[in-house]
Amino acid sequence: MGWWKEYYENGNKKSVKAYMMDQKVGTWKYYDENGELTTQEKHSRASEERINTYSSDVLLLNHLKPGSRG
User: Fold this and answer.
1) CA distance 38 to 33
2) Which of 17, 40, 62, 67 is least buried, going by the fewest C-beta atoms within 10 A?
3) Where does the chain have alpha helices with state H?
4) Can you say how many angstroms the Cα of residue 35 is from the centroid of all Cα atoms in its chain?
């Protein structure tokens, strides 16, 4: 498994993603420029992709990604 991390110019994390055999795996996390978690996507070949959207650590929305089965 390989990790891909992106950063804003201010040094804060922008995203953390994982790949296995060229496929998305695990929990992908996206952050705003202040370093606050905004979105999580769970990727697996065996299950649906679910997106969680956050604001100041409060879960605002939990839904299936368009095109996912669930």
Assistant:
1) 10
2) 67
3) none
4) 14
